[in-house]
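Action item from last week, closing it out:
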Amino acid sequence: MPEGITEDEVRGLFSLWNNALATLDPKKVADRYSKTGVLLPTVSDTPRTDYASIEDYFTNFLKLKPQGEILESHVTIGKNWCEDVGIYEFSMGATGKKVKGRYTFVYVYEDGEWKINHHHSSIMPEGIVTAEPITKDEVRDLFQLWNGGEKCRSGKFAVGVRRLSN
């Protein structure tokens, strides 16, 4: 039976996992998961539901040399379990790329230590794509098209549009 765990200690469990990533050893990372651990990974559509499949995932993922940092964390503590959900960012040492993601870690106390029982990770949704600015001439051309005109100064709108109102 575990002693009580604090919110800071729950957040510290991420460091154990992140340190395992730093070894670039998929076995050390897979060892951070419980016997019944489930990984719903970021860069694979396949749920990983046993040690071998979790190790397999990290065999490929570790080639990127990832190191994570928690940006936002929300902790819940229960009896013999705890959870940390939020936003993290990975720096990929192999490429220099940074990737933000949402995460959920649910930990259980197993064999004298806290292990990951459920880990879900997903890349942050892409930002809203903004339209390119439009010039006054393009606005005039669009108005002309709307009214049935087919001649455009900009050349960008070369198709005629029939008047919608008859």
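Closing note: Residues 7-123 form a domain with the Nuclear Transport Factor 2; Chain: A, fold (CATH 3.10.450.50).
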